[in-house]
């Protein structure tokens, strides 16, 4: 699992050697790129965020999705033109009425009002079109309480939503090929999130919800392609959070998410993020199930059996040991991890820990050179002593010394650490 | 019009079996004068795929003693054969071999561009049949785990056995380098089962799992070969997608590859004549004169043909059955994102079957189940290919295996067997022969998975035909012809 030189998660990075021909073509490409960039910069220097600039950003971003300034330009193009006129109290208004008079808020509020004259595509059905018209006064927008004519407002609102929905969909589609090529580029994900936020701000909850549900599908697909893309995992959590929120008329998705970690683990045991996600979901899962002590104990039993089964086939895998340790911490440090063993007696805890140690010792029968096993045994034996508020007995001391010896042999690079442990616990032979 | 006899042919290829067809593919850009004949009215030779009518003709043909390496062929239909579809709805394969992802034939198909015309399907899990120990317990199928995640998920073996299996799987992947190499080298020629027991302390059940992965027909594959085969299986896992190690050509297995290769040969200018065999021949030092059954007399620099004289060793008994059920439970993708398999393989370990007369199966029986996705039968039906060594009451044992399988997979009503084709495939020469201007391919391999050693004689024959030009040319490497469809789809 450690990064092998030149590869990430086992997917190799290729290095290429260029011929003269390729060098020439590269220089051409660089020239074209710089030209595009200059064009965009020229436009924004003049404060122009017209659809023409929007098209240029599409071209430029396809060539370089990491150019985050251009993503911002794109956002401004949408706010200033393509998206429907903001309704009273909408996000644009919020920007102009924010307390800090930063450069971005002034430009966005100016673009909100001034572009209605400069834009080649006037937003149809905008509620303010009839009143503020071409006034460059942001205050005029904020003081217009009603849209022109109540009968029109429903129609205009519906048209606005349709327009916004179509923009949102096309923007999401635009980012997909970019994501497929650069699945870990922050700026693409951040732009998608911004678009998704626009969905919440501009669309009815039911409509916005569908967009977010599709987003969950995308997160799953990305994780299907690279199961350990931690961007995708974090993103998934964010999407799930939104889907659960009241804004999108949601309810808890803990059971589904827990089942999802099951699926990912069964596909590939060596998935740190899946195990981590699982550990984070457990407290809420048990609470929602209304689990009593017996149910929680049964749950812990099942988790322990599963992780032991995993360690049995993959003892060299660190992500498995991390999860096992999480479960052990539930036993020995319940103040931090109360979900499963809050009402265990000390005898209970000692019994469980002793059993775990015995089970792990069994692994040594067939795996005698896996250092993580010895590390686990060492650590857990010390936990046991702590639990019982005593020092290791003779047999335990002998074990600890033997395991430390193995660790020194298997992992000589960390001899300093092993020496420290030796000193700390008085284990010098 | 020029008659065939006017040309001095560079090579006459007799028979359109897989090896001969691959030779035609290899020569398809060489500009050589090639005449490719086959006494059958169909392509594929001993690797052909049949409609029901073709199968009937073939059985008649074999019964006349004209197929040197096939004997005891017969077809049986049940009394109420109502479920059987029209003849052309079927494409029953004589060589339903699965092809491991790391097999060399695939890289040859790719480099020669012939792969574009073949559709491949996924081969799913391998199962072991475990007979019921008493009448109350149903006999069942156990999936054989061959990846870490499969070993993790299975509930069929103990924790200790899982550890042994994992150690062995890791060992196999590295078995050709030290220190593992020294561990097995001294046992190279003795049976793999013995090595498993001695070195890995494996009991009977785990041994059966591993021997099944080798698809060994006598269960006695030696350590060297066994480790190589398992290594191929393990390193083939996941190559073309998650969850599967082998693929299968749609529309009849190897027959499809033979047909595609002949098509390439024809496009390259070779002349094809079906229903034409060699009546007599006269061999000179550097050419052969052939009198064909069509009446033509031709001269050729080289004759390439296949062996068809039985060697006298034990053959392989086959039963091809069509059942009236889609057997959906066998064709489920087990891994997230994996394609639905179209082929499932089931092994009946030696001793797991007995006939009514009490004869126990002395050797493993292998059953390859094909869904209608293979194009070999209509939707709603499946084709079952059973194979075992032809000893003792081979017909009885195969029938018993079929029966046991049908009852193991059905919950309520056992599906009806709509059709049975039985025959015995005899072994012939197992090496190629080059005698002056005549090159003879070895007899087809009875192996259940494609054996790369089949490809070597083809390259040998190609070198002989090409003569000096072989040194300049790259074997089986071609560019797409103009106008060839580029059907790479970006998902």
UniProtKB/TrEMBL annotation, chain A:
It holds the Pfam family PPTA. The keyword Ribonucleoprotein does not apply. Residues 91-140 have a biased composition (Low complexity). It catalyses: geranylgeranyl diphosphate + L-cysteinyl-[protein] = S-geranylgeranyl-L-cysteinyl-[protein] + diphosphate. Coiled coil: none annotated. It comes from the Eukaryota. Residues 1-24, 91-156 are annotated as: Disordered. GO terms for biological process: prenylation. One of its GO terms (cellular component) is Rab-protein geranylgeranyltransferase complex. Keywords: Prenyltransferase, Repeat, Transferase. GO terms for molecular function: Rab geranylgeranyltransferase activity. Its EC number is 2.5.1.60. InterPro entries: Prenyl_trans_a (IPR002088). PROSITE patterns: PFTA (PS51147). Catalyzes the transfer of a geranyl-geranyl moiety from geranyl-geranyl pyrophosphate to cysteines occuring in specific C-terminal amino acid sequences. Belongs to the protein prenyltransferase subunit alpha family. This is Geranylgeranyl transferase type-2 subunit alpha.
Automatic annotation (TrEMBL), chain B:
GO terms for cellular component: cytosol; nucleus; Rab-protein geranylgeranyltransferase complex. One of its GO terms (biological process) is small GTPase-mediated signal transduction. It comes from Corynascus novoguineensis. One of its GO terms (molecular function) is GDP-dissociation inhibitor activity. Belongs to the Rab GDI family. This is Rab proteins geranylgeranyltransferase. InterPro entries: FAD/NAD-bd_sf, GDP_dissociation_inhibitor, Mrs6.
């Amino acid at each position: 699992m450690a990064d092998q030189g030149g590869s990430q998660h086992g997917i190799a990075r290729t290095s290429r050697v260029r011929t003269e021909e390729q060098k020439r073509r590269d220089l051409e490409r660089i020239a074209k790129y710089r030209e595009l960039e200059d064009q965009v910069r020229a436009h924004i220097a003049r404060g122009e965020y017209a659809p023409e600039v929007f098209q240029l950003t599409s071209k430029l971003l396809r060539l370089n999705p990491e150019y985050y300034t251009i993503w911002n330009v794109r956002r401004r193009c949408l706010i200033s033109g393509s998206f429907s006129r903001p309704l009273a109290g909408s996000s644009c208004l919020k920007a102009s009425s924010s307390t800090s008079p930063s450069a971005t808020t002034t430009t966005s509020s100016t673009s909100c009002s001034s572009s209605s004259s400069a834009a080649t595509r006037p937003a149809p059905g905008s509620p303010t079109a009839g009143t503020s018209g071409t006034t460059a006064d942001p205050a005029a927008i904020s003081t217009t309480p009603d849209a022109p004519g109540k009968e029109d407002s429903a129609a205009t609102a519906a048209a606005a939503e349709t327009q916004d929905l179509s923009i949102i969909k096309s923007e999401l589609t635009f980012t997909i090929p970019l994501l497929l090529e650069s699945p870990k580029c922050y700026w693409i994900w951040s732009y998608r999130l911004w678009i998704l936020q626009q969905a919440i701000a501009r669309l009815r909850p039911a409509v916005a919800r569908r967009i977010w549900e599709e987003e969950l599908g995308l997160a799953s697909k990305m994780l299907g392609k690279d199961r350990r893309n931690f961007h995708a995992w974090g993103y998934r959590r964010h999407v799930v959070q939104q889907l659960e929120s009241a804004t999108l008329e949601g309810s808890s998705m803990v059971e589904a998410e827990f089942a999802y970690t099951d699926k990912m683990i069964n596909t590939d045991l060596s998935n740190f993020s899946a195990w981590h996600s699982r550990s984070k979901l457990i407290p809420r899962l048990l609470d929602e199930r209304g689990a009593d002590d017996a149910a929680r104990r049964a749950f812990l039993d099942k988790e322990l059996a599963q992780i032991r089964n995993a360690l049995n086939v993959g003892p060299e895998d660190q992500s498995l040991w991390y999860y096992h340790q999480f479960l052990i911490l539930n036993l020995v440090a319940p103040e931090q991890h109360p979900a499963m063993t809050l009402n265990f007696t000390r005898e209970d805890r000692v019994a469980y820990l002793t059993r775990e140690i015995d089970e792990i010792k069994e692994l040594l029968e067939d795996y005698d050179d896996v250092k993580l096993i010895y590390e686990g045994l060492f650590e857990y034996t010390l936990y046991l002593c702590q639990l019982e508020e005593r020092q290791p007995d003779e047999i335990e001391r002998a074990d600890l010394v033997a395991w430390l010896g193995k660790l020194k042999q298997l992992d000589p690079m960390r001899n300093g650490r092993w020496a420290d442990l030796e000193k700390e616990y008085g284990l010098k032979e | 019009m020029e008659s065939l006899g006017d040309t001095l042919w560079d090579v006459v290829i007799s028979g359109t079996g897989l090896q001969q067809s691959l030779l035609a593919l290899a020569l398809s850009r060489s500009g050589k004068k090639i005449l490719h004949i086959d006494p059958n009215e169909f392509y594929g030779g001993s690797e052909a795929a049949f409609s029901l009518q073709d199968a009937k003709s073939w059985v008649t043909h074999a019964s006349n003693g004209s197929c040197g390496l096939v004997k005891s062929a017969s077809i049986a239909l049940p009394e109420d054969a109502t479920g059987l579809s029209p003849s052309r709805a079927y494409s029953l394969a004589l060589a339903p071999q699965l092809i491991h992802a790391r097999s060399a034939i695939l890289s040859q198909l790719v480099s020669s561009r012939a792969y574009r015309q073949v559709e491949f399907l996924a081969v799913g899990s391998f199962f072991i049949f475990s007979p019921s120990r008493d009448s109350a317990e149903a006999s069942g199928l156990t999936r054989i785990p061959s990846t870490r995640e499969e070993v993790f998920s299975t509930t069929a073996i103990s924790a200790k056995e899982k550890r042994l299996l994992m150690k062995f799987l890791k060992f196999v992947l590295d078995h050709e380098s030290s220190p593992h190499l020294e561990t097995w080298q001294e046992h190279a020629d003795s049976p793999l089962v013995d090595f498993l027991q001695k070195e890995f302390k494996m009991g009977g059940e785990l041994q059966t799992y591993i021997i099944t992965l080798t698809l060994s027909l006598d269960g006695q594959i030696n350590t060297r070969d066994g480790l190589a085969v398992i290594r191929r299986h393990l390193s083939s896992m996941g190559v073309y997608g998650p969850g599967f190690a082998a693929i299968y050509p749609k529309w009849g297995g190897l027959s499809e590859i033979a047909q595609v290769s002949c098509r390439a040969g024809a496009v390259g200018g070779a002349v094809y004549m079906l229903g034409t065999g060699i009546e007599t021949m006269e061999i000179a030092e550097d050419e052969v004169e052939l009198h064909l059954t069509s009446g033509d007399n031709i001269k050729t620099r080289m004759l390439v043909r296949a062996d068809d004289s039985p060697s006298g060793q034990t053959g392989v008994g086959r039963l091809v059955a069509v059942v009236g059920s889609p057997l959906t439970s066998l064709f489920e993708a087990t891994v997230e994102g994996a394609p639905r398999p179209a082929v499932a393989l089931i092994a009946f370990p030696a001793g797991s079957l007995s006939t009514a007369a009490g004869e126990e199966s002395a050797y493993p029986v292998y059953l390859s189940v094909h869904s209608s996705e293979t194009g070999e039968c209509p939707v709603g039906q499946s084709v079952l290919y059973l194979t075992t060594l032809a000893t003792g009451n081979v017909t009885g044992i195969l029938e018993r295996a079929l029966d046991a399988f049908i009852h193991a997979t059905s919950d309520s009503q056992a599906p009806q067997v709509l059709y049975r084709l039985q025959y015995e495939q005899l072994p012939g020469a197992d090496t190629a022969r080059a005698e002056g201007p005549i090159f003879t391919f070895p007899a087809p391999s009875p192996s259940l998975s494609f054996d790369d050693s089949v490809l070597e004689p083809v390259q040998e024959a190609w070198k002989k035909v090409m003569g000096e030009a072989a040194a300049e040319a790259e074997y089986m490497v071609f560019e797409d012809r103009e106008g060839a469809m580029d059907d790479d789809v970006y998902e």
